[in-house]
Amino acid sequence: MLRDALPKVTMNLPGPKAQKVIERRAAAMPNAIKCGYPCVIARGEGAMFEDVDGNIFLDWIGGVGVLNIGYSNPELIEAVNEQSKKYFHAMMNITTHERYIELAEKMNQIVPVRGTTKKTMFANSGAEADENAVKIAKSVTGRPNIIVFSGAFHGRTMLTMAMTAKKAYAIGMGPFPDGIYRAEFPNMYRKPEGMSEAEAIEYYIGKIEGVFMEGSPAEFVAGIVFEVVQGEGGFIPAPIEWCKAVRAICDKYGIMMIIDEVQTGWARSGRMFASQYLAEAGCAPDILTTAKSIAGGLPLSAVTTSAEIMDKVTPGTIGGTYCGNPVACAAALKVVEIMERDDYPGKALKISEKCMKRFNEWKEKYEVIGDVRGIGAMMGVEFVMDKKSKTPNAAIVNGIVAEAVKHGLLLESAGTYGNVIRFLCPLCVTDAQLEAGLEIYEAALKSQL
Q: Are 417 and 393 in contact (CB under 8 A)?
C-alpha cells in the first residue's frame, strides 16, 4: 500500500506526464501562485503521494501543516461521504445545522483559552480566523490598535498582510489598514550577543513597552497577536517566560492576548494545541485561532474565546456564507476523534525525539547548521555560512530542497532570510519512512558542502 511505501524516484523530474500538466498550469494559472516542485500528485495515502508518472514521494511539508492526519484517511473519507449524502451546505444565518454546533461544543471543551464557558465561531482559512479574532478584540475593547511581531505570518487579506512581517507577501498591495504596530519577537538564537536568556526576555519585553511609548499608548491597544511557534518566521518558539510576561502586560492594560495556532494546532506541538503549554504555565490566551489541519484538508478555521468575550461582539460583524460548512465540520469532528483516540500528540513527541536527536547530531557535525529548534514535531533547522558569524545561508537551503526532491523527499524553506528548513510531515508517518527521509535529507545536505 502507498501509505506504507518508501520514497522512489525512477526518472529525471518532472517526468513526461508531469511536464505536460505543469505546462498546462503555466498557461491556465497565475504565475504569482508559485510552485517550485517538479511533481504532480495523482494520489496520496498517509505521509506519501504518488505522482502522475509513478514516482513516490515522502511529504515533509504536508500542505504546509494541513495534513497532520495524512492523505486520504479512510475514516475521514467515510465521514465526508456520509455528510455529503445529507446536504453539502447550510448557512448558519439561515438554517441551523448540527455539525457546526457539535464541532463548536467540542472546540469549547478542548481549546485552552481563559474562561470556564467558551464559544467558537468558524471561518474558512487561517487568515479569516486571524482577521475575525482582531475584529472580536476591537469590538469588545472598543480600541483601534493591535500589536504584532517581527517574523510574523498571519495571512494574505489586506489586514493580515499588514500584520505579516515578511513584505515579500505584500509587494505592491498597500496602503494597508492603520492601527498595526510591530515589536521584536524573542529569537533566542539571534538575541543580542552576551545576553543570558533571562536578560534577553527582559530585552524583548521592553520592545513591547517601547511600542506603548513610541507607537500606540496601551489604552488604545485591543490585542497583542503572536504565534507560539513562528511558522514563516523560521520555526522560532516563543519562550514560556516571555509568554507569561506578555500575559501580565495584557492583564495590566486590559489588552486581549490573541494566539495564532493556525500552524501549531492539531497535535503538531505534542499537545492538541501549543497553547496548552501556556495554560499549564498559567498564561492561557484570551482568544485562539486555528485552521490548517482542523478538517484534514477541507477549508475550515476557527476562533475560540470565552463566552463573556464572544457575547459582547456587535451582531453582524462576524460570520459569512461558507463559515462552518457542514461537510468541513463533519471532517473536523472525525479528525478530533481520530487524534484523541490514536494519541496524535504522542505521535508528534515520538517523531520529535527521533528527529531532534538526528538534527542535533548534524548540528555538531556540520558548520553550516547554526540552530535546531521547535516544539513537538514542528521543527526547524537554521542554516548559516558559519557558526560564528550566523550569517543566513539561503543558498544551501535552496540546494538541499532541490536535491532532496530528486530522491523523493519534499522539504520546504522558511524564515525571514529563507535559511530555515521546516518539518511538517504528517504525524502518521511510519518509522521506516521517517528514517528514509532523514537519510535523503542528510545526503542532500552533504551534496551541497
A: no
Strand 145-149 with 56-59, pairing: unpaired
What are 265's three cell numbers?
494546532
- The pLDDT profile of the chain, 449 residues, written as one tens digit per residue, is 999 999 999 999 999 999 999 999 999 999 999 999 999 999 999 999 999 999 999 999 999 999 999 999 999 999 999 999 999 999 999 999 999 999 999 999 999 999 999 999 999 999 999 999 999 999 999 999 999 999 999 999 999 999 999 888 888 988 999 999 999 999 999 999 999 999 999 999 999 999 999 999 999 999 999 999 999 999 999 999 999 999 999 999 999 999 999 999 999 999 999 999 999 999 999 999 999 999 999 999 999 999 999 999 999 999 999 999 999 999 999 999 999 999 999 999 999 999 999 999 999 999 999 999 999 999 999 999 999 999 999 999 999 999 999 999 999 999 999 999 999 999 999 999 999 999 999 999 999 99
Which residues does residue 305 pair with via DSSP β-bridges, in sequence order?
119, 287
All structural domains of the chain, each given as residue ranges with its CATH number in brackets, are: 76-341 (3.40.640.10)
Secondary structure class of 383 (helix, strand, coil): strand
Q: Are 124 and 299 in contact (CB under 8 A)?
A: yes
Look up the pTM and report it: 0.96
- Pick from 134, 139, 101: nearest CA to 120: 101
Neighbouring C-beta atoms of residue 12, cutoff 10 Å:
10
Evaluate whether 267 touches 68 at the Cβ level (below 8 Å). yes
**Number of Cβ within a 10 Å radius of residue 325:** 25
CA dist., res. 88 & res. 276, Å (int): 33
C-alpha cell at 407: 530522491
| CB contact at 8 A, 186 and 149 | no
Beta-strand relationship, 256-261 and 369-375: unpaired
> Distance between CA 69 and CA 272 in Å, rounded?
12
